[in-house]
Amino acid sequence: MPGVPGPPQPDPSNPYAQAHPQPGFGGPYGTPPGQPYGAPPPGGGGQDKKRKALIIGAAVAVLLAAGGGVYAAVGGGDDAKKPRATSTTAPAKQNKQDPTTQPTGDDNNAGGRDGGDNDPNDARQAGEAKLLYQTPAPEVTKSGVDVPGFWVMKGFVVKTVQDKVIAYKDDGSKKWTLSLPKAVCAAPNSQTDGKVVVAYGGNRKDSCSQLALLDLNKGTKLWDHDAPEAGPFGSDYNSMGMSQSGDLVGLSWFGGSAIVKVGDGKEVSPGELSPACSVDGFAGGKALLRAYSCNDGTAKLQKVTPNGKIKWAYTVRKGYKVSKIFSTSPAVIALSNEDRKSGGILAISESGKERSVLDLGKQSYQPQCGLDIFGTNMGGCQGVAASADTFYLPTEMKQDSGSGSMTEIHAFDLNSGKKKWAVTVDGRMLLPLRVDGKNLIAYEEPSYDHAGLVVSIGPGGGKPKTLLQLPEATRGAEDGFYSATRTYEDGTFYIASNRLTGNTSGESEKLLMVFGS
Fold it and tell me: Which pLDDT does position 373 carry in this prediction?
């Protein structure tokens, strides 16, 4: 992990800080004095220490820009946990050769150290959700393997597992399995009418250069192409990022970028950039946004139309660039300067004009953006959510007025940039998942001695309403994911691994866990 910089100094030239001045801080994100970057938040709970999350503080660009490398562990690790045992029977050794779904009543139950040989649902307490099914992690040949790609469909879900793409029905049985020549190395978060473009390994070592269109409903491969070669280092395809929206997929890798059509894989060009400029990344979903920057200090954010043209271009103030895209519609972005010492979060209107600058004050925020060394996965942050007029951000874990810890979600008005309300929980991280109508759906991560919750927060804030209380019997497994995608759809909560550690000690590692009422 890159070295941790010292505390940033105030930057009076930062136009975003001038809009919302905070003495002694370099931007509208403020890290409380004395909080070292990269340090774990105060004790009291949270996810495994191996899981990395982004802390947005005074040095926003250090934390958001590509290669900034300042990440903080969330809570403590397995060594610090003292899970309650509901059985004295040791779990049977897991056979991890085949990543098939394990029924909740077999030896590989999701309770792990909490459950022994019994079905963890047998230990389910009143009011707790049911573990619908789980899949154990497959055996991996090295200490860390990325497994990007997870999509929730009607009646089933689809998960990549190295060189396999597997669909699981709602009862946990397999719907289909598709094999690829090599492991999937990049995948977008969204799909289009049941179709998605993924990237898998090429002929060169660590090259992510082959593209394939998958039909998620049928489990078939519709086309298979080489990625377009573009940029001075175009043939290496290191650190591939992918963003899909409609019939377009934005590809960004170290040294190159391209846009291809979902339907046939053919490349489209929204216009050539100057040789002194390069694409920083894409974000997809409801719209496709492209960010680029130039050697002269200028940068732009562009909205790409469904036919591959530029609808509008927002010009970033000179000396700043787009470092993360939190939402594409509405457009909400993070900016940083070249020195990574100042920046801001902005909302951009549907016409490409500056809508507002979020007034973040001195608070530090902690969306989960993962380790993105080259900045190619610009739209890959979790733990944030946006509606048409509101943006939701989680704060970092901090000490409360007593001896415990707390975290909050802050809701910001996208028209004014002002904070509308805050909701607090004690002893655990509170992360936005999605907006459902007027309500925010959020996830309260497990603490050292309590399982997680899926909650609903009303449009004015207030006390979160529990939608799913996850079982105590599966708390250890729930908390054991190194990095995961978490999704709540139609009363069902999914946790899908993004990275397998290959660590078989203690609680068996899971690929997928699914909970419902």
Answer: 73
Cα separation of 98 and 290, whole Å?
39
Closest CA to 68 of 363, 317, 371: 371
Residue 273, both tokens: 């950039």
Of residues 55, 50, 25, 26, the one with CA closest to residue 38 = 55
User: Closest Cα partner for 408 from 418, 421, 420, 422?
Assistant: 422
Global confidence as pTM: 0.81
Give CA–CA dist 129/468, Å, rounded: 6
Which of 2, 3, 63, 53 is CA-nearest to residue 31? 63
Q: How many CB atoms lie within 10 A of CB 90?
A: 9
Tens digit of each residue's pLDDT (9 = 90 or more) over 83-121 = 222 222 223 333 333 333 333 333 333 333 333 456 889
| The pLDDT value given to residue 506 | 52
**Average pLDDT value over all residues in the chain:** 79
Ordered DSSP codes for 260-328? EETTT--EE-S-PPPTTEEEEEEE-SSSEEEEEEETTS-EEEEEEPTTS-EEEEEEEPTTEEEEEEEEE
Query: Beta-carbon neighbour count of residue 209 at 10 Å?
Result: 24
| Bridge partners for 390 per DSSP | 413
